[in-house]
Specification:
alpha/beta, six-stranded parallel β-sheet, 10 helices
Length: 228
């Protein structure tokens, strides 16, 4: 846990980090993305699915490719595709408590839309644990893993990267974070697959408990016998 020494800004990705991407709400958003592309690009479902995946892998966010190549309105896309019911999302009070106990500031940094981020955080019951949300609109439609997305986060939220930790499920999004000085945590991984990943967290809850236990140990005053 030495990589966290002096770190007091905790930055979390949203999808597949604070809640799992295999959740049905995530699949519903994916279907709405594909349907939106069929309407706006005039292609069939299979072609739309290929475009969706291509733009995601090329630009980091499907909407960026749609704006660049099809002239769609990003706000229309983000509003439409995230218009899904969230009643199947279960609140996670344990996660909320763990995040709230982290010393310092807590920020959500997502390639998703701002409105959806606030909705899903509220549904999970973790919204009060965070100080701010930095969404794709706040980054000027520059998504992770672009270095500029992190630079805009740093500027807008007054983040010192040397005091910050980035939690993320996508490996490629951690390289620019590490280059800028963030300590990095790859969520959902059993081992760190690259030198710029400082920690792997198979399960976020257990990892945060370990971080908090370490904070308690390092913050505890020495006993009389330890002081000599």
């Amino acid at each position: 846990m030495s990589a966290f020494a002096g770190r007091d800004v905790w930055v979390f990705d949203l999808d597949n980090t604070l809640y799992p991407a295999d959740h049905e709400v995530f699949a519903a958003i994916g279907d709405r993305m594909t349907a939106f592309i069929t309407r706006t690009a005039g292609v069939d479902w299979d072609a739309a699915l290929k475009l969706r995946e291509k733009y995601f892998h090329t630009y980091g966010a499907t909407v960026v490719g749609l704006v660049k190549h099809h002239g769609i309105d990003a706000s229309d896309f983000l509003r439409d595709v995230h218009d899904v019911p969230l009643d199947t999302v279960e609140p996670d009070p344990e996660l909320a408590g763990l995040i709230a106990r982290l010393t310092g500031r807590r920020i959500v940094f997502t390639n998703g839309g701002r409105d959806y981020a606030h909705r899903i955080l509220a549904r999970l019951g973790v919204d009060k644990a965070f100080d701010s949300v930095f969404a794709l609109e706040d980054a000027g439609l520059v998504p992770k893993p672009e270095r500029a997305a992190f630079e805009r986060l740093i500027a807008a939220c007054h983040v010192d990267p040397l005091r910050a930790v980035m939690f993320e499920d996508h490996l490629r999004n951690l390289e620019p974070a590490a280059d800028l000085g963030f300590a990095t945590v790859l969520v959902g991984a059993a081992a760190a697959p690259a030198p710029y990943v400082h920690h792997a967290a198979p399960r976020l809850h257990a990892f945060l408990r370990a971080v908090l236990d370490n904070q308690s140990l390092t913050a505890a005053p020495a006993s009389p016998s330890e002081r000599g």
